[in-house]
Amino acid sequence: MPIMDSYFYKVDPDKIKLEHTCSVYVPAYSHVYLSESQTASLGITLSIRNIDSKRKIYITQVEYYDTHGMLTDTLTTGLFALEPMATASYVIAQDDMRGGVGANFIVRWAGDKQMHPPIIEAIMVGNVGTKGYSFSSRGENISCNE
Fold this sequence. Notes:
By secondary structure, this protein is mainly beta. It is built from no helices and 13 strands. The radius of gyration is 16 Å and the shape is elongated.
């Protein structure tokens, strides 16, 4: 479930005309290998940043897949508006290792044709003993219709 606030909220899909829709692939890791026999689990924050200063974007679907390409979770139900310059976040807990080393998200969003596309990233953080690990990956457009 997304973390929602006044800048990220559910809207009635019958009242919105979605002109431009895109799908973005975002690689993520629910754990990484430290050696062949040792892993470090990671918490994942999926960050969707609306970098357009004038227009809302609409999140139509967020899906979480595992290493084998199997759908693990659908993180949205319905249509959500994200205000200009705002960020929406989805969190996968550090102890949820269902995604594996090849976890990924598919984010489907919509907006006006002339708007700036959002920046979509996964931020992974974890620790083993006294060592901490953190890194990020950026999403890649896989389809857009105009």
